[in-house]
Design goal:
332 residues; five-stranded antiparallel β-sheet; alpha+beta
Length: 332
């Protein structure tokens, strides 16, 4: 355990804050030893690589971080493989591993920042795929050291949400995630610009799809090693068909995605762009010039600067469209 630990390298926004105490553990057993020593008495927060966090001040408590690694083949048949992956594995490394082995399902989720444990908490998604589509079960430990495995259904997944994001479950920590990947060719290409990106590719395979997704993401999203950001800051709002009809009459060019339950998802980035925020800044925080869904640290920003920009953007969208957009990023 380290005290007054800098979290600068543990949040991709690049906010320079400290934690009163910082603990990394490499196994469930080691985590249990920290519990036995009373290290979790008082406030605590479990984080991944900080790709979905915004710290607004120093954290007066204990920050926990899992370094549990490993990709283990649990089962295999003619059509699929089942893999158990440690929560501390880098998500994109796992996607690359699947592509390398010829396993289908994760390729559209290439280059999403963060760790495997966070993938199951956030229900990460991109280009028509959500990680819940791959998850079989999630292994956890709580702050008392009790182990529990949740089936996919028990995780109550929805758009960018899960059982683990509920405030009453913040004492439950993911230690491993079990995924099912396919062996037979199956691609999801009709969402976003993937098919267009692949138009000049000679061979359609896992590698080319992964490369296409990476190319698209790099063209839209800033590298957090260069420009502090947490990827998409806002969740795309979902409205009723009636609400959407009203909006579409007023804005015929509005992009949308119809969902199976009849509701409609509207790109928050488009609305922010229509409000004139793309490429604009407020103090040391800005809206990324290539993707209005992304807020960036222009250099030396504090958490309060990002919050002030977020509030201003949300107000503009509410005034113009009558829709309240919400943060996808966890604000601490």
């Amino acid at each position: 355990m380290e005290k007054m630990f800098s979290l600068l390298s543990y949040n991709t926004f690049g906010i320079d804050v400290k934690a009163a105490r910082f603990i990394e553990y490499h196994s469930v057993e080691e985590f249990g030893r920290f519990i036995a020593k009373g290290c979790l008495d008082g406030n605590f927060l479990h984080i991944g690589s900080g790709s979905n966090l915004l710290f607004t001040q120093d954290y007066d408590g204990t920050i926990l971080h899992s370094c549990i690694k490993g990709i283990d083949l649990l089962d295999e048949d003619d059509g699929s493989v089942i893999l158990k992956v440690g929560a501390g594995e880098i998500w994109d490394d796992f996607v690359a591993y699947c592509v390398q082995h010829g396993w289908y399902g994760a390729e559209n989720l290439s280059l999403i920042p963060g760790e495997v444990g966070a993938s199951a908490v956030q229900n990460i998604g991109a280009y028509g795929v959500e990680v819940k589509d791959l998850i079989v079960s999630v292994e956890t430990v709580d702050n008392s050291g009790e182990l529990h495995t949740y089936s996919k259904d028990e995780c109550i997944y929805s758009y960018r949400n899960s059982l683990f994001k509920r405030s009453e479950n913040k004492k439950i920590f993911v230690t491993a995630v079990v995924y099912r990947l396919g062996k037979h060719e199956h691609f999801m290409l009709d969402y976003g610009a993937i098919r267009r990106e692949l138009s000049n590719v000679g061979t359609l395979d896992l590698k080319s799809v992964r490369e296409a997704v990476i190319s698209i993401r790099r063209s839209k999203l800033p590298d957090p090693k260069v420009v502090g950001n947490a990827g998409s800051f806002f969740i795309n709002p979902i409205v009723t068909s009636t609400q959407f009809s009203v909006l579409q009459r007023k804005y015929p060019e509005i992009p949308f995605y119809k969902l199976l339950d009849g509701t409609v998802k509207i790109p928050a980035g488009w609305m922010i762009d229509q409000c004139g925020w793309k490429g604009k800044s407020l103090g040391r925080a800005g809206v990324y010039a290539k993707q209005a869904l992304v807020l960036v640290n222009l250099g030396g920003a504090e958490g309060k600067d990002i919050i002030a920009l977020s509030d201003a953007v949300r107000h503009s969208v509410r005034q113009k469209f009558g829709i309240d957009i919400h943060s996808e990023v966890n604000i601490i």
